[in-house]
Amino acid sequence: MPEREKLLFIFTAAGDRAEDAVTGTTLATVSLSMGSDVAIALLGYGTMLAKKGYAETVHAPERQPFKKLLAEFLEGGGRVLCCKPCIKGRTMEPSDLVEGVESVTAVAMSEEIAAADKVISF
Question: What DSSP line would sit under 16-53, residue for residue?
Fold first, then answer.
């Protein structure tokens, strides 16, 4: 059996570019349903997307709410990786993150990027 394609979606923005977050999460979830191994990497301001209570504030016209999309992605087996230095820079702690989100070091994030077959950035 061939190995599943590894996709990594990188988000560097949050509510200021809500449509990017919603579109990227939708595509990541669709990729999961197509059998790919999918992770979302949150870097910089994008780490806000994983903060408890923040997802409820992210909306894009004619789209499902970001909170629902994020929950569906995680429930479907997707991984969300949040940069530890980036959350620290926003005075957050790993305990401030939505359940199921992984707080990872810059080294671990770099390894995920290197291991991915395709990297898609939003």
Answer: GGHHHHHHHHHHHHHHHHTT-EEEEEE-GGGGGGGBTT
